[in-house]
Design a protein that fits this description.
The structure is a single chain. By secondary structure, the protein is α/β, with parallel strands linked by helices. 38% of the residues lie in helices and 22% in strands. The chain has ten helices and nine strands. It has a seven-stranded mixed sheet, sandwiched between helices. A two-stranded antiparallel ribbon has the order 6-8. α3 packs antiparallel against α9, α6 packs antiparallel against α10 and α9 packs antiparallel against α10. The two termini are 37 Å apart.
Length: 281
């Protein structure tokens, strides 16, 4: 599906699904501002402009690629995505940035089938992982990675949504009811039950894991924006459900839970998990 076909497909979707790039951009900016880095500090960059290449598997809006291009303007940076509906047209990208649509993240993406990249970032594949096992994605990324290169996997742990109350006496029962209902659709959102095993999975495919698993959580001061991002994702989910009545039920639960978030001072939390591995041979 080319850029024009993707745009036509997007225009046929309900409006909340057409506007998902707003949520994705907000999430990217929140986490970039909080973390203060685009690549985890355990990724040791030895940049040689003529040969150094960076890839992102799971490009969504293209913002991470654009930010990296500002940091490393002379480096070739390639993005791979199964959905180009939220990325800029190719002619609007910087000279050394490409974004390519692919059918799968488990097939060879490297030019000429050779190890090509010094750093590969894998980001929020959630629903794209088959059989709750990301091993095939790691195997494919390993084939793309040069010896000595790094793979960084960033994933939101939505399998373990949490609730933080600004007032400990508030129960948050309506928000809990919403999150319990949302988990009934993990097969659509992506179960992500494999996240805690990511260090072992990377090690299984020959990567030297750098300092285990790193977990980060947004500050409570970001609550309003992060809650809105979560509710936007739940709204998008409601329009993907096969039965329209299921979608209406989910949106009704959202209205009640949003009232509690706003009036009682509650925050939905989901850790960002980062795991880094290095190819040592």
């Amino acid at each position: 599906m080319g850029q024009e076909q993707t745009s036509k497909h997007r225009a046929s979707l309900p409006l909340p699904l057409q506007m998902s790039s707003i949520r994705l951009a907000s999430q990217h900016l929140l986490w970039k501002n909080h973390l203060g880095f685009l690549l985890h500090p355990t990724v040791a960059l030895d940049v040689q402009p003529d040969t150094f290449r960076v890839a992102e598997i799971g490009t969504r809006t293209g913002l991470w690629l654009l930010d990296m291009a500002k940091r490393l303007p002379n480096i070739q940076i390639d993005g791979f995505t199964i959905d180009t509906s939220s990325v800029p047209p190719p002619q609007w990208l910087p000279p050394k940035v490409t974004i390519r649509r692919v059918e799968s993240y488990t097939t060879d993406l490297a030019p000429n089938g050779r190890p090509t990249y010094d750093v590969i970032r894998i980001s929020n594949l959630g629903a794209s992982i088959e059989d709750n096992d990301p091993g095939s994605v790691v195997k494919n990324a390993m084939a793309m990675l040069k010896p000595g290169g790094y793979i960084e996997w960033d994933e939101l742990d939505t399998a373990h949504y949490g609730i933080v109350n600004s007032n400990p006496t508030h129960s948050g029962s309506r928000l809990q009811a919403l999150l319990k209902h949302v988990h009934e659709y993990d097969h659509i959102l992506g179960a992500r039950g494999w996240i805690d095993s990511l260090p072992d999975i990377l090690a299984r495919y020959g990567l030297q894991v750098q300092a285990g698993q790193h977990r980060y959580r947004l500050p409570f001061a970001y609550a309003n924006v992060e809650n809105d991002n979560c509710f936007k994702e739940f709204e998008e989910l409601s329009y993907r459900l096969v039965d329209p009545e299921d979608g209406k039920k989910l949106r009704k639960l959202m209205v009640a839970a949003k009232e509690d978030c706003d009036q009682l001072g509650q925050m939905i939390t989901a850790d960002l998990v980062i795991v880094v591995g290095r190819k040592v041979y």
